[in-house]
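Q: Sequence in, structure out?
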Amino acid sequence: MTKRGETEVFRITGARQGLADDVRGRQRRYIISMTVRTLSVIAAAVLWNVERHVAIVALALGILLPYIAVVIANAGRESAPSLPSTFVPAPVRPALGSAEAAEGAGAETPYGRN
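A: Exactly. Output:
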Protein backbone atom coordinates (compact mmCIF):
# COMPACT_ATOMS: atom_id res chain seq x y z
CA MET A 1 0.00 0.00 0.00
CA THR A 2 1.15 3.50 -0.67
CA LYS A 3 0.55 6.65 1.30
CA ARG A 4 -1.73 9.31 -0.08
CA GLY A 5 0.03 11.38 -2.71
CA GLU A 6 2.89 8.91 -3.23
CA THR A 7 3.26 6.69 -6.22
CA GLU A 8 4.45 3.12 -6.04
CA VAL A 9 8.02 2.71 -7.28
CA PHE A 10 9.26 -0.56 -8.71
CA ARG A 11 12.92 -1.47 -8.54
CA ILE A 12 13.97 -2.75 -11.94
CA THR A 13 17.68 -2.00 -11.90
CA GLY A 14 20.59 -3.16 -9.83
CA ALA A 15 20.84 0.18 -8.02
CA ARG A 16 21.52 0.30 -4.31
CA GLN A 17 18.80 1.17 -1.86
CA GLY A 18 18.50 4.86 -0.96
CA LEU A 19 20.70 6.46 1.68
CA ALA A 20 17.75 7.23 3.97
CA ASP A 21 16.60 3.60 3.84
CA ASP A 22 20.11 2.37 4.54
CA VAL A 23 20.55 4.66 7.56
CA ARG A 24 17.11 3.68 8.87
CA GLY A 25 18.00 -0.01 8.65
CA ARG A 26 21.32 0.47 10.45
CA GLN A 27 19.60 2.49 13.19
CA ARG A 28 17.01 -0.25 13.62
CA ARG A 29 19.70 -2.94 14.00
CA TYR A 30 21.55 -0.77 16.53
CA ILE A 31 18.41 -0.19 18.62
CA ILE A 32 17.60 -3.91 18.62
CA SER A 33 21.09 -4.87 19.78
CA MET A 34 21.10 -2.19 22.49
CA THR A 35 17.72 -3.46 23.72
CA VAL A 36 19.13 -6.98 23.95
CA ARG A 37 22.13 -5.56 25.82
CA THR A 38 19.92 -3.75 28.32
CA LEU A 39 17.84 -6.87 28.92
CA SER A 40 20.97 -8.97 29.44
CA VAL A 41 22.39 -6.53 32.01
CA ILE A 42 19.06 -6.51 33.87
CA ALA A 43 18.97 -10.32 33.73
CA ALA A 44 22.53 -10.45 35.11
CA ALA A 45 21.52 -8.22 38.06
CA VAL A 46 18.38 -10.23 38.79
CA LEU A 47 20.04 -13.65 38.48
CA TRP A 48 23.28 -12.84 40.31
CA ASN A 49 22.22 -14.50 43.60
CA VAL A 50 20.00 -17.13 41.98
CA GLU A 51 21.98 -18.60 39.09
CA ARG A 52 25.45 -17.10 38.99
CA HIS A 53 26.65 -18.92 35.83
CA VAL A 54 23.75 -17.61 33.77
CA ALA A 55 24.25 -14.14 35.27
CA ILE A 56 27.93 -14.14 34.24
CA VAL A 57 27.03 -15.13 30.66
CA ALA A 58 24.37 -12.40 30.54
CA LEU A 59 26.86 -9.86 31.90
CA ALA A 60 29.47 -10.87 29.32
CA LEU A 61 26.83 -10.46 26.62
CA GLY A 62 25.99 -7.03 28.01
CA ILE A 63 29.65 -6.03 27.89
CA LEU A 64 30.35 -7.32 24.35
CA LEU A 65 27.16 -6.19 22.59
CA PRO A 66 27.93 -2.43 22.45
CA TYR A 67 31.14 -3.07 20.53
CA ILE A 68 29.43 -5.47 18.13
CA ALA A 69 26.47 -3.09 17.66
CA VAL A 70 28.72 -0.15 16.82
CA VAL A 71 30.77 -2.18 14.35
CA ILE A 72 27.62 -3.39 12.62
CA ALA A 73 26.06 0.10 12.58
CA ASN A 74 29.20 1.67 11.09
CA ALA A 75 29.80 -1.08 8.56
CA GLY A 76 28.78 1.20 5.73
CA ARG A 77 26.41 0.89 2.88
CA GLU A 78 25.55 -2.33 1.17
CA SER A 79 27.45 -3.17 -1.95
CA ALA A 80 25.57 -2.73 -5.20
CA PRO A 81 24.02 -5.95 -6.42
CA SER A 82 25.84 -7.40 -9.35
CA LEU A 83 24.17 -7.01 -12.68
CA PRO A 84 24.12 -9.82 -15.21
CA SER A 85 27.14 -9.78 -17.45
CA THR A 86 26.60 -8.45 -20.96
CA PHE A 87 29.98 -9.71 -22.14
CA VAL A 88 29.66 -12.32 -24.85
CA PRO A 89 32.92 -14.14 -25.54
CA ALA A 90 34.11 -14.25 -29.14
CA PRO A 91 33.77 -17.60 -30.88
CA VAL A 92 36.90 -19.69 -30.73
CA ARG A 93 38.43 -20.28 -34.14
CA PRO A 94 40.40 -23.44 -34.73
CA ALA A 95 44.15 -22.94 -34.95
CA LEU A 96 45.85 -23.22 -38.32
CA GLY A 97 48.00 -26.27 -38.84
CA SER A 98 51.74 -26.18 -39.47
CA ALA A 99 53.29 -25.94 -42.97
CA GLU A 100 54.20 -29.65 -42.97
CA ALA A 101 50.58 -30.61 -42.31
CA ALA A 102 49.43 -28.30 -45.09
CA GLU A 103 51.89 -29.87 -47.59
CA GLY A 104 50.71 -33.33 -46.69
CA ALA A 105 47.12 -32.31 -47.31
CA GLY A 106 47.96 -30.95 -50.76
CA ALA A 107 47.34 -27.33 -49.84
CA GLU A 108 49.50 -24.55 -51.15
CA THR A 109 52.20 -23.33 -48.77
CA PRO A 110 53.13 -19.69 -48.22
CA TYR A 111 55.12 -17.85 -50.89
CA GLY A 112 53.86 -20.11 -53.66
CA ARG A 113 56.09 -23.11 -52.80
CA ASN A 114 54.63 -26.59 -53.24
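The chain has a mean pLDDT of 76.
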